[in-house]
């Protein structure tokens, strides 16, 4: 049996088992396709709020038990939208969010998007220097933050207006206060189109240098549709309570907890920050059924399984969804052995894909060890030869290219990076070395990009190298990923001392630690006589990785 489809050239034949078309070397998603809404004048907030469901509670604060119903959520979004409009916020304005997870985070996001303004988020762990760099690039006109984090913004950009998300000081202008105001029917309403910019999240992309990823309302609507396919059946049959363990400022958390799951009517229990005890006790207290997380949390649950099972009632938990890095066969088998009633699902995605490009959506799909799943609905893939860029076939390994409704518009004010990452016909070069098997499952083999994955966070070596080269005692440096059982990878620096210098490992580590977020810290240093480079001056990082692993 063969599937037939149409493209600009006419009829194409798709293998139903793999999704591969031999005539154009494209892998097509095996999932039921979805169509973007025909109404071009549509923002993602309106799209989500118009999705029908039977959900009642939208958010629960894990620490206080305070909750927001869906009725309260949409009233709050309209009230905050009106307040922002009255403040002069308009379509195209960039608004910064610097906040830990909160039951109000989604209210702020959805209100900004409803206006046609643009969200840019940043990490609460960032230093003032890192925040100032993003502010200078994204040029926000307003910032939402919390009282403890406000000083960082004040130091990074003293003139940037701030609204506190929540505060104990009743005199402050807060989101909580804005939510209680009566929405005005006469507010300024600008036409927002699906092609308009919705988010500007920062990613290290394929080059290791942080760039603003431009995603449209169409991209986010496509992402929400994918999430509805991933989790919709289970939600419809049983209802779902999710534990929010991953940061909402990241595309993974923004896609699931601040937008996508709301279209299904799911209940989201919010942890302001991750603590293993808080996550496990929240599963028990709120009878949670689903926990999206990153691989190091799974590893910790395996290593402490006996103590966890004796202390916490996890009987309501039936699924965990892991993203950020592929899970090894050993980790999956170890988890299944310790928690036989919990299904592990996996996903693959980038900031540039507005969330997930592939996933396993059910127990049957999760049984294929090592895969990150089937291509998301309406997503196409090519595997291309790394050296020649020629398309490859089933079970052949090369760079993964993706195309579909969720692929970003490009990088902010960086035409060179956009052209090197997006082809003229819409393919995103992911920088990941992959293959797709005869059943259509995607396997991630390696990373062309030089990012270091520390506990699910992306650490760009280029940023740390540039910082270390400012030290007067360092002549040259290269930063590589070093294997670590708990973190996955840690940043390791190969350092060439300047003549006469006796700088120590501790001094190198301390120099970086004072200027970057904790997860970016250098954690291992080796001194070397020279940094190996190719004729064009590019660091031969793979040679250093081999050298480091030879000493393991």
From TrEMBL:
Cited Pfam families: AMP-binding, AMP-binding_C
GO MF annotation terms: ATP binding; CoA-ligase activity
The keyword Transferase belongs to this UniProt entry's keyword annotation: no
Protein keywords: ATP-binding, Ligase, Membrane, Nucleotide-binding, Transmembrane, Transmembrane helix
AMP-binding enzyme C-terminal domain residues: 463-538
Protein family (similarity comment): Belongs to the ATP-dependent AMP-binding enzyme family.
PANTHER family tied to this protein: LONG-CHAIN-FATTY-ACID--COA LIGASE, PEROXISOMAL OPC-8:0-COA LIGASE 1
Name of the protein described by the UniProt record: 4-coumarate--CoA ligase-like 5
Gene assigned in the entry: LOC101502846
